[in-house]
Amino acid sequence: MLVFRMKEIYLKEIDSTNKYLKEHHQELDDMTFVYTFNQTKGKGRNERTWVSEKDQNLLFSLLIKNKDTVSLGGYLSLVTSISVLEVLKDEFAIKDIKIKWPNDIYICSKKVCGILLEGELPNYIILGVGINVNQSVFTGEYRVNPTSLRLQTRQEIDKEKLKEKIFKSLLFNLDNINKDSLFLRFNEYDYLKNKEITFFYNNEENKGIYLGVDKDFNALIEVNNKTISLSSGEISTIKTN
Ligand code: BTN
After folding, report:
1. Ligand 1 pocket, 44 CB below 6 A?
2. What's this model's pTM, rounded to 2 decimal places?
3. What is the pLDDT of residues 159-175, one digit of tens each?
């Protein structure tokens, strides 16, 4: 059981929890979590930055070194987003909570959580998760409108307790990976389903309708009556983003 092998490191302040694990992956054990509430130079997807107000939010990364788990590749991102979503949904009775392919979590069409997978295959993978918890003001430019749990639930949230629940859920789901169940759950939470979208394909911006995902978690997009399958990349909705 992964839960018995897990280790936790709390850092009062760090530039990036993903970077910390990258720099220390050799001496740290498989299933080491590192978390902070004060990340000063967070990394986002596609070379963006992840900005988080001091002491307001939960930022963590998990180091995976076990070869069988590392080989799950993209499924790890799916397991992570589903684990986080299900805790938030159950804990705070949030109704309109979805996953935007591949792994952003949205509440009422605003982004509350971002996930960044990094690593060096086949040696290790780092799952990095940033959740906006108690931040109530977001200044600056955001590609997608941000929100936080506090803004959505109108209550101050205990970050330590939330962290415990999310780590437990993630470990449980990593220990019990069932691809069919993940596929069904993702379909239930799929934010983009049937939306008009834009996406990059062959270095060009294209428009299409997002249909869902296939069993390998590729995005299926209808363009001029043909279906294109996208294994990675960025999708934007035409109306809301
Ligand atoms: C995204 O662009 O949506 C992904 C954001 C991922 C941010 C998290 S915060 C914890 C971990 N450490 C980082 O530097 N980034 C990830």
Report:
1. yes
2. 0.95
3. 999 999 999 999 999 99
